[in-house]
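Q: I'm writing up a methods section and want to include an example of the input and output format. Could you take the sequence below and give the corresponding predicted structure tokens, formatted cleanly so I can copy it straight into the document?
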Amino acid sequence: MGKAIIIGAGIVGLSSAYYLQQSGWEVTILEKGDLSDNCSFGNAGMIVPSHFVPLAAPGMIEKGIKWMFDSKSPFYVRPSLNFDLAGWGLKFMKSANREKAERAAVPLRDISLLSKDLYAGLTKDIGDFGLTNNGILMLYKTDKVGEEELHIAEQARNLGLDVASLSAAEVQTLQPDLKLDVLGGIHYRCDAHLNPNQLMALMQKYLLAKGVKIIKNTEVTKIIHEKGKITSLLAGGKQYSANHYVLAGGSWSPEIAKRAGFKIPLMPGKGYSFLVDDTAKNMHIAALLCEAKVSVTPMGGKIRFGGTMEIDAVNDRININRVKGIVESIPKYFPGMHPALPETKDIWYGFRPCSPDGLPYLGNSKSLQNLTVATGHGMMGISLGPATGKLVSELINGQSPSMDINPFSANRYA
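A: Here is the clean output for your methods example:
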């Protein structure tokens, strides 16, 4: 087959390595960090066919403007004199309409369902990473949001997804050990959850045992290309060359793309999460708190709470008010849960790579014939990782993709 170099060791990069190695490629992964804290680690660990409505959805611009004046809000765009942000924002505004959101639903559903199927096979190869197929609950407290969620649930049924609309009492029956204060909920039985920390560790271990090289703390600083092909790249002061290259750099993808001579409109969306010890009042099914936009996932004897989408340049600031917003929302839905504001050292944050239309970039570059782009998965990196890796492998091997990937074209803004 030949040699493949993957830039980025998040779940998309590792999944691409997994399927390429299986099909006979000699794979090297170059990762700018130390593999301890990329966005895949602090993820809510949800596998979500239910998420067929993209971030650039109808009404998001109005909500975003309102939320900009609330330091604890779940979505925030930090104003700045940044041409990349301005260009991204204009594209986001053009995408946030009903027609484009409806067009995105089927491809997002299909890639999610493909990924969910592949996760079942992954457990046989790499071991137990807490894959739990009992769905995800969307919990709402207000009539307005309830109407929105019931409408989306009806769309989900029309897309063939397994969904149940529940009263407050029915939700309480599903979570018998927790006191709930909600108006109702939607049970997306098509969804699942897992432990991302275990998944990432097991994937790395499996790949290393299969001969995949994972080179840490190695940032790609130069990409040399001529006549429409990458010939080599410089990373960590060394030169690397391969037959094919995969750009899976997450939120760092735009600067890597610039070094290869093209642009990917993408902005980092900072999210926060923290773990609390699970209590005797145990949680069985992962949940999303609709008004608060907070995720709640049982994970290895603990519960992970996560939330916020802060569109900004990559930075190392912790906006403690955003974390307070997550903490303060929890007892509103679970009156018996009062987690303390975590210490700064216990707050995880990461940068989700957000495309302006809410769809991932997945496909071969039109300017460089030996480069495949796999980035821009936003909050759904863990959810879509295996499917993306399989599709990357199929593209590189010249096979028919498992699904139509034209809506995810890496060149749609070129």
